[in-house]
Amino acid sequence: MITPTNPLEWLISAIGFVIAIGILVSVHEFGHYWVARRLGIKVLRFSIGFGKPLWQRTGKDADQVEYVIAAIPLGGYVKLLDEREGDVPAHELPRAFTRQPVWKRIAVLLAGPVFNLIFAVFLYWVLFTAGVPAPRSIVGEITPNSIAANAGLRYEDHIVQVAGKPTDTWEDATLGIIQDLTDDGTIHMRVRGVDGSERDLELVTGNRSRELTQPDALLPGLGFDIWQPRVPAVVATVMDNTAASRAGIKKGDEILQIDDHPIEDFSQLVAQVKPNPGRAVTLQIRRDGQVITVPLTIGESDAGGKRIGLIGIGPENKPIKTGRTVEDMVALQKYGVIGSIGHAAAKTWDTSVFTLRIVGRIVTGNVSLKAISGPISIAETTGFAIRQGWRFFLSTLALISISLGVLNLLPIPILDGGQIVYQLAELVKGRPVSERAQQLGQSIGIAMLILMMTLAFYNDIVRHLN
Prior knowledge:
Its main location: membrane. It comes from Steroidobacter flavus. The chain is α+β, with helices and mostly antiparallel strands. It folds into three domains: 103-131 and 337-466, no CATH class; 139-227 and 326-332, Pdz3 Domain; 235-315, PDZ domain (Pdz3 Domain), CATH 2.30.42.10. The chain has helices spanning 7-38, 102-130, 147-151, 170-184, 209-212, 218-222, 243-247, 266-273, 339-364, 375-388, 390-408, 416-429, 435-465; strands at residues 43-58, 66-80, 132-135, 139-142, 158-162, 165-166, 186-192, 198-204, 224-226, 235-238, 254-258, 261-262, 280-287, 290-297, 299-303, 306-310, 313-315, 330-333. It has a four-stranded antiparallel sheet. Strands 12-11-13-14 form a four-stranded antiparallel sheet. The chain starts with 6 loop residues before the first helix and ends with a helix.
């Protein structure tokens, strides 16, 4: 859905990726920098990016901190005065990181992830103050004999709760579904029908949580999709040099049937055409009050490396009247300047907890390893977000900032969380962790990161090849 389809979109994705990573790394490293300086620890360098410096400046204060923007925009670092990295003049030893009390060292290490979370709160505050239109969790088409159909879910049901938590929007509902799914394989829902009555449902997935948590597998695997207004299968436009134009289909034709499949709306027509490129079919059409049959061979197109069928027509923009209206689809999340603070903090907290739970479920095997995404997916997501407008981009930036903050707190030696573990161990033992143990931990941490990055790149590449 978000894969770039032309060079311009790829360029936008690359630019979006660099902007997003640049902003979030700057926030993260500024947290380390700001707290270190406030606690009297000497900072030697503040770098955004790695490798050859593209821009460099020395501060005019007594510390003469080097500020650098480097060539590889995939991270950054703050270099502190540290005895482990070289000789430190005697008069500066009190300002070395290694000479600080444990609480100060932990404060500096925590500052990066905490600043990422604070930044997410700020972004959500901006969004909630300005107002964020979000699609309501209204159910669309139901696949016959699917998990959703067997549970009694119906077209145009509004999912109002998942596992007892309110879910007015699709974002809330999706997060709730994934969380409940990975707990025990059963999704507990409360839905409100078109008539206003509420029902409790259980979607039993058995042991399919790994399968359903693969990218783009959740809703199709459960057997329902997001509600969209139905439009009649009446032809409004016929594109030149397409299967429809060659078959003689005209504007105003109403498609009633494709082979033996009755067509009630345009989405049903798409569902029959899209998976069948190159197939010869017979259409039953109503034209000027007469029903005629038209033979047609479905054309094909390439979408992200996949062959899909199409016949080259566009529908009328006249939704069929049902129990829902287009206005029912959208909930405006807008609060006052003060009220937005609480909602932004709650949103950041809930998303952070969800991220931690998913990481835990990946470790235990309840969530597919294919859910791990890498730089290619992040670039596609940020590029897509930029094309959708500033609200979508800020929301995406907040999600990535939360992920960066939470993942950096994991107890992996090379990350902030792992370094904090060393400091806590020193607090318990009364002496620093040995250099040998720290070097071993660093080696393990680097190996784990390389493994995760390799897996993330592999998932990105396989997703594109498929």
